[in-house]
Each structure stands twice: as structure tokens, then as C-alpha cells.
Design brief:
By secondary structure, the chain is α/β, with parallel strands linked by helices. The chain contains twelve helices and 18 strands. Helix 1 links the parallel strand 1 and strand 2. It starts with 12 loop residues before the first strand and ends in a 12-residue tail after the last helix. The relative contact order is 0.18. The chain binds flavin-adenine dinucleotide.
């Protein structure tokens, strides 16, 4: 079908600000709070009714902050953890042996905590609003974005724009190049429909004998292999209790295709209920189990990876490589969920070569968030510049918070100094981040 031509028309300005953050996931919240605290006027646009992104809306509620010896991701992540803990929204989570889970939280609690932090930082949060077409100047600077509202199309204008949409929507539409998927076939990591359960009789579940447990797991594994149950690699019901959120029910496809995403979301929910039905019939204590909640959105791990001035690779991750322009540390392993949707993850190999060596961490460089196409636009979060493999580590939420805090602080410093994003002295940025509680050690050539 041919394109249609749109008439030229004027558009009212909804908001004007110093820093516009597009997307309110872990990266966007951190960017907005950091910029607001450093004196910038900030608008945060979020398409869903709450902030938190995958952490709240897709029920992905686990953070990894330790190098398996000490906590090395602090700053706004630490502050969020402290506030969650003080209000009873947090539990520690050991995870399988040899891994380094640190905290799991209630997504409702994180929603409250992050909206409060944004409010306290003076950020103007506008939910239910998709950041649309970027408005570009003749010199390729971005002046703002168009948004569709109930009263018609409007514009949000800004000095600096941070694309924290997870998918890199604004950067891609502004002409910054990107990669999508793994090199061999362009497929991105599998997605997952997360869900919470209730109504489980935990005493009955715990009274099961080892033999009973093993027989259930063996039966379920066989049914998954034979296609009687949906694909999953971690379908052990005895791990799950009331209000625990299983990471199961994978699906595969293109998260940038709305129609496909709709079908996959429906499929993911069907699979949740297929497991529930089986568990009710099979597992002691699960007879009256219910789905308390499914993710409002399918959990999306990977889509566009926007080209940056530096690209994070698996070698940088696994080599615990330090960077002169570090804005924080990363600890997570190369963790690729099968792009074909089996539910298989590379960490299930228990293959230590997938992991950053114990007690070590890599640096997250600022340059993976900057680009050479639109000078006053930065990206933060899972859309930042990385290879498919490097992304599988740096995509985790604590790492996205590091990026958000880094570029949010950078934008406010650039504003205060009247310079561009690339002109802020990186040592001054690192000093400001340390003062704000960010753990930043072993910077090559640094103080
Ligand atoms: C099933 C699953 C399990 C995972 N497990 C873990 C785990 O155990 N630990 C961990 O730390 N991480 C985990 N992750 C990864 C992690 O949750 C994400 O990579 C992380 O949330 C990315 O943060 P982000 O801020 O970059 O993007 P997102 O969390 O995706 O947030 C992007 C936000 O931007 C909004 N948005 C998008 N486009 C627009 C637009 N055009 N305009 C306005 N708003 C927009 C979205 O609505 C969303 O709120 C998992 C992910 C999934 C899907």
C-alpha cells in the first residue's frame, strides 16, 4: 500500500523542559531522578500507567548488584533498595548455588517508591503518553518529540533528550543506527510472560517427600519435551509459593511488531494457565492455586541496540574490563534466553565461562550511551550500544539504573555548564556520581 501525505500544521506545546526522558523503566527513572536532583527541569514520558518498566509492569522483580563478594552497584539502586527495605517490600533471594542474586522486591512497592522519588526530585511525570516522532533541527539536534494526547497531537520540547524507552524508539526515529538480534539470524532473546500465584497450601507443598518431588519434576519435564505442556526449562513447582513470581512461559518473536506482540502476549498467558491446570491436578498444596496476576506486558528482554561511541562486548564483560569513562560497574553474566523460545538460558549450563570472575566486575562506559548522529540525545538502559552477547549482561535492571543515573547526571551537568553532552569533563562526572553514592573504583587514569 502507498504511504499517505500528511498536511503541514502547527502543534501546541504540552511542556518545555531542560531534560526530556522518554520511557520510565529502571533506566528512565534513574535518569530523571538524577537530572532533577542536579537542578534540571525534567519531564518523563511513559506510555504505561506507572513507572518501572519491566520491573513493575512485566513483574520482573529481581536485582543483581554483587560481584559475589561485595555490593558494587550502589547509587540510586542502593537508595531504592533501602527505601524498599524500610517499607517491607524487599526480600533477599539466594538463587541457585554459585549465582549472585541479591534482592527481590514487590513490584507494587517499587512502583510507589519510584513515583515518590520522582516527585521529590521535581520531575514532571506524564504517563499514558508515547514519545513519538522526534523533532530535529537543521543541525541534527533534537528539539523534542511529538506526543499523541486525548486532545490531539502536542509537542514536548527540551534541551537534552534521553531515550530510555528500552526499544530505542526515539534514537532510531532520529536516524541513529542500531543493531537488532544476534549476528547469525537477527533473532532477539526470547520474551516471557511473568505471573504471580496465590492460594497455595505451602505446608502441604513442603510436606512432599523427595521422591514425590522428583517424580513430579520428571513427569513435567517429559510432558514439556513431548509438547503436552508449553516449553519451559525451569518448571519446578516446588520452588514456587504464594506471591512468588516464576520466570517461566517463554515465547519468541519480534517485540517491535505490535500485532505479533499481541499474539505472543495472548499465547504467554495461555501457557501460564496451562501450567496452573497441570499443577492443580498434580502437586500437593496446589489444588486451589490461582493466578494472582500476569504481567500487564509480556516481558521483553532485547530489541534495538542503538549504535554508540563505544559498544559493550562479551569480552569486556567476561574480562572485567575497566574503562576510562566508567559511570559504574556491571556484574551480571552472559545470560542469553533462547531466541527460539525454548526457555533455555545460557546460564543453565552452570558454565562458569559465562560468568564474570568472582569478586570482579566490569565497567559500564558512558560512551555506550552517546552517539555521533544526534549530539544532544543520549540513550540509557537495554537499548544502549552493545553486542547481542554484551547486551545479555548489561540489560539487567541494576545495570540500567547505573546508565540512567550516569546520563541523567551528565545532562544536568552539561546544562549547568552550558555545554554539550560530549563536552562535560568525564572526571567531573565521575566525581559527581561518587558524591551521589555510585560505586566507581579502578578507573584507568582516574583519581
Ligand atoms: C522475563 C524477564 C526476566 C528478566 N530477568 C531479570 C532479572 O532477573 N534481573 C534483572 O535485573 N533484569 C532482568 N531482566 C531484564 C530487565 O528487566 C530489563 O532489561 C530492564 O528492565 C531494562 O530496563 P530499561 O529501563 O532499559 O527498559 P524497560 O524496563 O523495558 O523500560 C522501558 C520503559 O519505557 C516505556 N516506553 C517504551 N517506549 C516508549 C515510548 N515510545 N514512549 C514512552 N514510553 C515508552 C515502557 O513502557 C517502559 O516503561 C529480565 C527481563 C525480562 C523480560
Amino acid at each position: 500500500m502507498p504511504d499517505i501525505m500528511l498536511p503541514v500544521r502547527s502543534v501546541p506545546i504540552l511542556a518545555q523542559c531542560d531534560v526530556l526522558v522518554c520511557g520510565g523503566g529502571p533506566a528512565g527513572v534513574a535518569a530523571a531522578v538524577a537530572a532533577g536532583r542536579h537542578g534540571a527541569s525534567v519531564v518523563l514520558l511513559e506510555r504505561w500507567p506507572r513507572v518501572g518498566g519491566m520491573a513493575t509492569t512485566a513483574l520482573v522483580n529481581i536485582w543483581h548488584r554483587s560481584d559475589r563478594e561485595k555490593i558494587v552497584i550502589r547509587g540510586l539502586a542502593q537508595e531504592s533498595v533501602d527505601r524498599l527495605g524500610a517499607e517491607g517490600w524487599l526480600s533477599t533471594y539466594g538463587g541457585p548455588e554459585g549465582r549472585h542474586e541479591t534482592e527481590s522486591f514487590d513490584p507494587e512497592g517499587l512502583t510507589l517508591v519510584w513515583h515518590r522519588m520522582l516527585q521529590e526530585a521535581g520531575v514532571r511525570v506524564i504517563c499514558y503518553t508515547v514519545a513519538g516522532e522526534p523533532l530535529l533541527d537543521d543541525d541534527s539536534s533534537i528539539m523534542g518529540v511529538l506526543v499523541e494526547t486525548k486532545t490531539g497531537q502536542q509537542a514536548v520540547m527540551a534541551r537534552f533528550v534521553i531515550d530510555a524507552s528500552g526499544d530505542g524508539d526515539v534514537a532510531a526515529k532520529a536516524g541513529v543506527g542500531f543493531d537488532f538480534g544476534r549476528e547469525a539470524d537477527d533473532l532477539v532473546q526470547g520474551m516471557t510472560m511473568m505471573y504471580g500465584l496465590c492460594g497455595i497450601d505451602e505446608a502441604a507443598r513442603d510436606a512432599m517427600t523427595q521422591a514425590q518431588r522428583e517424580s513430579i519434576i520428571a513427569d513435567m519435564t517429559k510432558r514439556i519435551e513431548e509438547g503436552e505442556l508449553p516449553p519451559s526449562k525451569t518448571a519446578n513447582p516446588t520452588w514456587y509459593g504464594n506471591r512468588v513470581i516464576p520466570n517461566m512461559c517463554p515465547v519468541a518473536g519480534n517485540p517491535l511488531d505490535e500485532e505479533e506482540l499481541t499474539e505472543l502476549t495472548v499465547l504467554g498467558r495461555e501457557r501460564v494457565f496451562a501450567f496452573l491446570e497441570y499443577w492443580r491436578k498434580t502437586v500437593p498444596g496446589f489444588e486451589n492455586a490461582c493466578v494472582e496476576q500476569t504481567g500487564h506486558s509480556l516481558g521483553i528482554r532485547e530489541s534495538r541496540r542503538i549504535h554508540g561511541l563505544k559498544t559493550l562486548t562479551a569480552e569486556m564483560v567476561l574480562g572485567a574490563i575497566k574503562q576510562p569513562d566508567a559511570i559504574g560497574h556491571g556484574v551480571w553474566m552472559i545470560d542469553i534466553h533462547d531466541p527460539e523460545g525454548s526457555g533455555y538460558t545460557t546460564w543453565q549450563d552452570r558454565n562458569k565461562t559465562n560468568m564474570v570472575p568472582e569478586g570482579q566486575s566490569y565497567h559500564i562506559p558512558l560512551a555506550m550511551c552517546l552517539n555521533d548522529t544526534v549530539p544532544n540525545l543520549a540513550v540509557a538502559g537495554r537499548c544502549a550500544s552493545s553486542t547481542h552477547e554484551g547486551h545479555s549482561s548489561v540489560r539487567v535492571q541494576s545495570h540500567c539504573i547505573v546508565m540512567g543515573q550516569g546520563v541523567g547526571t551528565l545532562a544536568a551537568m552539561a546544562l549547568n555548564a552550558g555545554v554539550g553532552l560530549g563536552e562535560v569533563h568525564v572526571r567531573a562526572l565521575q566525581e559527581a556520581l561518587r558524591e551521589d553514592g555510585v560505586y566507581l573504583e579502578d578507573v584507568p587514569g582516574g583519581a
